Amino acid sequence: MLLEQEIASIIAFALHHADNPSPYYYDVPECFQYPAMYFPQPEIITGGETFRTYWMRYAWYINVMCATTEDAHEKAWKVLTALKKRRNLVPLIGEDGKPDGKGLRLYDPTIQPIDTGVVQISLEWTSRRPYDDEAVEKMVYFEVDEHVRGDAAAIEAAVERALRLYENEKST
């Protein structure tokens, strides 16, 4: 799962449940259109988890902006209750914009007024990701016949035959 997929899924979910306000992703212009939702970059904290994975914890503070604080609160409330009704599970969408059958579990969301006409939705989640280990070919087990045990030349020939067989199987 990629961060872009997680973010796109949350944006689609929030916009849908807030009755499709105008979305803003970068700096909000002075003359923006009400109602609006501002999606800044999330805050990210990282840590190691296992020998193969690390985690990234995201905190995202999405602003809902309306002509009045009450209107902004109503839209934020719709998003919050939609999340809670789904047990904090946001359906993930694929590149085609359609649900892919998977979900992203969020921690309990919060909303709070932060300015006149602005209510903030706070979302947090943790994603686990694998380290970029180089692909390593698994060890191949070769069985050497009993009659060649102790004969170095016979063992070498048996191993070469086994390697050729293995290479032939790999190429087919």
Quick overview of this protein structure:
By secondary structure, this protein is an alpha+beta fold. 30% of the residues lie in helices and 33% in strands.
Proportion of β residues? 25-35%
Stretches where pLDDT is under 50 for at least 5 consecutive residues are 140-146
Name of the level-1 CATH class of the largest domain: Alpha Beta
Structural class: alpha+beta
Outline: elongated
Largest sheet: 6 strands, mixed
Annotation field: number of helices = 3
> How much is the average pLDDT?
85
Helix content: 25-40%
Quaternary class: single chain
Compute the CA-based radius of gyration: 27 Å
Would you report the number of β strands? 8
Measured between the Cα atoms of the first and last residue, the distance is 32 Å
Domain module tally: 2
Helix/strand order, N-terminal first? HEEEEHEEEEH
CATH domain topology of the largest domain: STM4215-like
What is the level-2 CATH architecture name of the largest domain?
2-Layer Sandwich
Feature tags:
alpha+beta, 2 domains, STM4215-like, two-stranded antiparallel ribbon, 6-stranded mixed beta sheet
What do these coordinates show?
The structure is a single chain. The chain is an alpha+beta fold and about 170 residues long. It folds into two domains: about 5-130, STM4215-like (2-Layer Sandwich), CATH 3.30.2000; about 135-170, no CATH class. It is about 30% helix and about 35% strand. The strands form two sheets. Strands 1, 2, 3, 4, 7 and 8 form a six-stranded mixed sheet that branches. A two-stranded antiparallel ribbon has the order 5-6. Helix 1 (about 5-15) crosses helix 2. The longest helix has 20 residues, at about 150-170. Mean pLDDT is about 85; it is low at about 140-145.
